[in-house]
Design brief:
The protein has nine helices and seven strands, in the order H-H-H-H-H-H-E-H-E-E-H-E-E-H-E-E. By secondary structure, the chain is an alpha+beta fold.
Length: about 350
């Protein structure tokens, strides 16, 4: 199974210093600093520097305990460790700021009433806001993880469904290949049994034809142009076998040659017309192949003037029944195969499917 490309979660500093986290932290710290600026004795830049430093310390603590330690005791949830770490980082960071911003020779900040009040205010507001901000970030992480996992599961399910369809399509093509080859070889055997001088020429043409046709049996898609080449070669072989009993004509819209279709689509219709229509008829018959494009749709019709639908063989048979399922797999149900009797005798088989250019998604 092919590997699905799912973006890996960042680790280390790339996770702890993510741009979204940094933007949120600096924004919330700036708003807090602006709200406090009216009652603060120091300058606004100094206040903003303090609130942002405290915010960054809380953010780094949140990121640290998000990844370390790698394993926790069963009773300790990681989110609890992160929230507690953020709560503890607030007074620690505030204390360090006030200690290192105290000028040499000045009294400690707890001896200065204004500075002590500022210290207490920052700790109170930090502990009040930071844990809630951490909880909010955890909730967003859980939602994002759930969406990421749902997307990964959807991608994996789609990939598995596609692989199952491909496997089913290849299985059906493997069923078609022997069916076609055995029928063609049976036609050659008839010539050999009858002692026809054309048997050797037909066999040479058949070998040349199979060299071109067999490699395409395993392809998941081909074009109508390639299909028409195979059909013409097949009909020429059949005409050599019964020159007085088989006539054929191809009526092809050139705009349809580049359209995609499952391999052996057209060939199955033609081979079915030869085997069930022309061969059983004493007088033989004619096969007309029409390929036309009508806007976003393509219509393929194979009509023969053979014996027609017999009461004993009203079913589609192996070839057409398999073709119907292959069309459903290839076009997701947006293709129809219909078989109808022609007056006064003969059968018309039509396939209607989406007109998709080769190479288009």
């Amino acid at each position: 199974m092919s590997t699905l490309n799912v973006n890996a979660k960042p680790r280390g500093l790339a996770l702890a210093l993510g741009w979204k986290r940094l933007r949120f932290t600096l924004g919330l710290s700036a708003i807090l600093g602006l709200l406090l600026s009216g009652s603060w004795s120091t300058s606004l830049p100094s206040l903003l520097a303090r609130t942002m430093t405290i915010g960054l310390a809380a953010m780094l603590t949140f990121g640290l305990f998000e990844q370390w330690p790698a394993r926790l005791p069963a009773r300790l949830a990681r989110w609890v460790l992160q929230v507690l770490g953020v709560a503890v980082s607030i007074p620690v960071a505030t204390l360090l700021i006030y200690v290192y911003t105290t000028k040499a020779g000045s009294p400690a900040f707890w001896h200065d009433q204004d500075r002590l009040q500022g210290f207490s205010t920052l700790i109170f507001l930090g502990i009040l806001l930071a844990p809630w901000a951490a909880l909010g970030a955890l909730v967003r992480q859980k939602d994002a993880l759930a969406r990421h996992q749902a997307l990964a599961f959807d991608l994996e399910r789609s990939e598995l469904e596609r692989q199952a369809l491909d496997a089913r399509l290849h299985l059906l093509q493997a069923q078609v290949a022997p069916h076609f080859l055995f029928n063609t070889l049976a036609n050659v055997q008839v010539l050999v049994d009858e002692g026809s001088p054309q048997a050797s020429a037909v066999l040479r043409n058949l070998i040349a034809y199979l060299r071109a046709a067999v490699p395409r049996l395993n392809e998941s898609v081909t074009t109508l142009g390639e299909e028409l080449e195979l059909v013409r070669a097949y009909l020429e072989l059949m005409h050599m076998r019964m020159p007085d009993r088989l006539q054929f004509a191809l009526h092809v819209d050139e705009a349809a040659r580049s359209l995609r279709c499952p391999p052996l689509t057209l060939l199955t219709l033609v081979e079915n017309a030869v085997r069930h229509g022309i061969d059983p008829s004493e007088d033989g018959g004619r096969i007309d192949i029409h390929v036309q494009r009508h806007g976003a749709r393509c219509l393929v019709r194979v009509a023969d003037t053979g014996v027609g639908l017999q009461a004993s063989s009203k079913s589609l048979g192996t070839g057409l029944a398999t073709l119907r399922e292959r069309l459903a797999l290839a076009f997701g149900g947006d293709a129809q195969l219909s078989v109808a009797a022609q007056y006064p005798h003969g059968v018309s088989a039509e396939v209607d499917f989406p007109a998709r250019e080769a190479g288009a998604p």
